[in-house]
Amino acid sequence: MSGTEKAMQGVADTLREFWAHRPVRPRAGRKLGGVATGIALRYQIDPVIVRIAFVALALSGGVGLPMYLAGWLLLPEEGDQASPLESLLNRGHSSTSQGQTVLLGVLMFPALAFTFGSGGFQVFVTIAASVACIYLLQKNRGHLQPATTLADPPPTPPVPGAPAWDPLGAAPFAWDLPEPTPKPQPPAPRPRKPRVSGVTLGVALLVGAAAAIAGTWIPWFTAPHVVGLVIAVLAAGLLVGAFTGGGRGLIWLLVPLSVVGFGLTAVKFEGPANVGDLNFTPKSVGEVESRYELGVGSLVLDLRELPDSGSVKTQVESNLGEVLVHVPANADVTFRCEADSIGELDCLGKRADGTGVQVDGTDLGANGEGGLKIDLDVLTSVGEVRVLRD
User: Fold this and answer.
1) What is the largest CA-CA distance in the chain?
2) Tens-place pLDDT, residues 185-240
3) DSSP 12-65
4) 3-class SS at 84?
5) How do 357-363 and 332-347 pair as beta strands?
6) Average pLDDT, integer, range 337-364
7) Parallel, antiparallel, or unpaired for β 350-354 and 332-347?
8) pTM for this predicted structure
9) How far apart are alpha carbons 149 and 139 in whole angstroms?
């Protein structure tokens, strides 16, 4: 075994050890789901450091949001046999209800869509750095026993016969003195509950109303953007509440709004949905659309039914999935294929794979120049692009 293989094997063993002795989400001392507190207790570090790390990841392309949700789903709660996701798959008992587990899973979709739709290559670098941090924690502090929350020290048992005001029996000569009359204590003031939820809701309503009014003059303020702004305000309030002990009720408004925002972003209501398996087979030059879009799934564009003359120009854009374009055998094709995040390209014999790759060129077909002319531009964020002449 080479040195590289040994190093990779060591990394894999360390990550398997992390999973076997993964952190447990405590019931006490947590702010939201207990993910940050569980990691801090497992490796005996300050919980504030872990929370700040999640906030930094959330601000770095939104990676912290799906990572926290993944921890909530995959880390068991204190006293449980399995994590919420494992319990949903009948692999043990979890105190998290199935409804809450499904809700967390649904929330993962808008979180992932936002992260991979806006972060680009930075997202993959941040995820790789996060995995490296987990590896280093397990490698250097995995041998430590998980810390426990501090409890009150046990009371000192009184000496038999001693009065309550002298439980240690330090003054036995004064045991016949009467018990001192305790002074009445003023009632403890009630702790003020944080007003995070009310303030956040007020700000969200103001932002939503202002954005809707601004949409009359500024085209950028479309319905998805307005919903996105409101979601951002609610998420910020939920984040503040995680540190102040309030705002948990915001999640019941944030979840449905996130689903609505994901639907507005991923589905074209004026035409066919761009999520799933899409197939287009135009039979004339006029039927070829100038742009085809795919959110998540696969898209097949078959141009082999087009006539042997004329010219068409079209663009295919995909966020996540597979794009397949069939071109006629004798068409003159000018193509540009690109994966701006990570992908695999195979366009009329030109291939490339990796991050930020691109291929382009002109292919005149078997009969040489002449006939139908196709100008094709295919772009994907994450996925596979194939342009075939068959």
Assistant:
1) 119
2) 666 565 555 577 777 887 888 887 777 777 767 777 777 777 877 887 877 776 67
3) HHHHHHHHHT---B-SSS-SSSSHHHHHHHHHT--HHHHHHHHHHHHHTTTTHH
4) helix
5) antiparallel
6) 90
7) antiparallel
8) 0.42
9) 24
